[in-house]
Design goal:
Blueprint: H1 6-19, E1 26-30, E2 33-36, H2 50-71, H3 73-76, H4 82-95, E3 110-122, H5 127-130, H6 136-140, E4 146-159, E5 167-178, E6 187-203, E7 206-207, E8 213-235, E9 242-249, H7 256-268, E10 280-286, E11 289-311, E12 315-344, E13 352-355, E14 357-367, E15 372-384, E16 387-397, E17 402-413
Antiparallel strand pairs: 1-14, 2-13, 3-4, 3-17, 4-5, 5-6, 6-8, 7-8, 8-11, 9-10, 10-12, 11-12, 12-14, 12-15, 15-16, 16-17
């Protein structure tokens, strides 16, 4: 029996290279079972226990396969990826800040808006240049990277100045569920965002005499926001399956005298004989289905200060700074499930039957978001009467890189 199982190991290596999320890798193979036909070429040998020997060879092959998957150098490089999980946790926590008006604090009654936003984490701005190399992620293994999206956010703010001058409160809710089959049969996505906050006018706005420029003063704000992002994907890399380079030969479980008996039985059945110890009985095949899940679930307490300027009644520009306190977790998990079959050589299809086995590979990496996260923010707003549209941008200084939040918010205020 060959000592290499290169095609099957390469399959799982390819899976982990593409989805890169392995930690505490667990490989479990349920071995196929071979039964010798009572009327086949091996029937005279069943009293010698050759069927047990044959299934022992299969069990050894499965154990070798498990070991090769777990120790393959290409897979081992991805066996621990805390940076990747932290990147998704940080992106998720930052995305909770999307969907809120930031340029406006001067409405008299209330505001309402729809917003969509996304956050992405990376090792640094120069990472975009590194992406020109197709092998960058493959070479790095564990990298600080993450993504979170909230396609649908609804928010509302109310002026409570009649209770406390300069005080305004806001609330937001966002939910989006894309089931498999909506865009593609293999991908689903779900997001939830909910929270509330308050802002206070620390320094009152001021206008120049002609009124074309207005400074909105200084505003401080805080709140408590929860978000969850979950994406799942499943696919089959090759519908035709993968065949191992390892095969079981007659010499793996029969003695020379027993092979002579097989040849005699074949000739007696009008065959030609000619079997040797190297005659191939069959090999392993599998058609795996890959399932990957990326999820972040975080709580964020923002502490921020900002100011804004309005020009010509139409254009609003906001700048600010702050720090977020983030709690929760990010998780990247992957599993591969497949039937494992023993494909019998055509010459022996009438002599043995096979009960399929299975292979299961599971792993999971988790990490917490960075607790204290300083940030800068800006936003460009355009308004016409009560209607406002805004383009925010937030830049986080993470310990492992940077996180960026962007999106669009549109609504009205009175």
């Amino acid at each position: 029996m060959s000592t290499r199982i290169t095609r099957l190991a390469a399959l799982f290596a390819m899976v982990f290279l593409m989805l890169g999320s392995v930690s505490a890798l667990d490989v479990d193979i349920d071995v196929p079972e071979i039964t010798l036909s009572p009327k086949g070429l091996f029937a005279p040998l069943t009293r010698f226990g050759v069927d047990e020997l044959l299934n022992t060879e299969l069990a050894d092959l499965a154990a070798e396969f498990e070991t090769e998957i777990e120790t393959d150098p290409e897979i081992e490089k991805y066996s621990d990826q805390p940076l990747l999980a932290e990147g998704f946790a940080n992106a998720g926590a930052a995305s909770a800040m999307s969907g809120l008006y930031r340029t406006q604090h001067g409405y008299k009654l209330f505001s309402a808006a729809y917003g969509l936003g996304m956050a992405f984490s990376m090792p640094g701005v120069d990472f975009l240049e590194e992406l020109n190399s197709a092998s960058f992620i493959e070479d790095e293994g564990d990298i600080y990277a993450g993504l979170a999206m909230h396609p649908l956010n609804l928010s509302a703010s109310v002026n409570l100045g009649f209770l406390v001058p300069g005080l305004r409160v806001n609330g937001k809710f966002g939910y989006y569920d894309m089931k498999k089959g909506t865009i593609t049969e293999d991908i689903s996505f779900n997001s939830l965002s909910v929270g509330a906050g308050a802002s206070y006018q620390l320094i009152k706005p001021k206008s120049v005499p002609v009124g074309i420029v207005k400074w909105h003063g200084i505003v401080v704000a805080s709140g408590f926001y929860y978000q969850r992002n979950r994406a799942e994907m499943s696919y089959t890399p090759d519908e035709e399956g993968f065949k191992s380079s390892t095969s079981i030969t007659l010499g793996d479980f029969l003695t020379d005298d027993q092979i002579v008996a097989v040849n005699a039985a074949d000739i007696f059945s009008d065959g030609t004989g000619g079997y040797t110890s190297s005659s191939v009985l069959g090999l392993l095949t599998t058609t795996p289905e890959i399932n990957a899940k990326i999820e972040s679930s975080t709580f964020t307490i923002p502490l921020e200060v900002s100011t804004a300027v309005r020009v010509l009644y139409l254009l609003e520009v906001m700048v600010g700074a702050g720090v977020d306190l983030s709690f929760g977790s990010g998780e990247v998990s992957l599993s591969a499930e497949s039937d494992v079959d023993f494909e019998v050589h055509p010459e022996f299809t009438d002599d043995i039957t096979v009960t399929q086995g299975s292979a299961e590979v599971t792993n999971k990496t988790t990490a917490d978001p960075q607790l204290i996260r300083p940030r800068l923010m800006t936003a460009l707003g355009l308004g016409l009467g009560p209607v406002r549209i805004e383009f925010p941008f937030i830049y986080y200084f993470d310990s492992e890189g940077n996180t960026f939040v962007t999106g669009i918010t549109a609504g009205f205020m009175l």
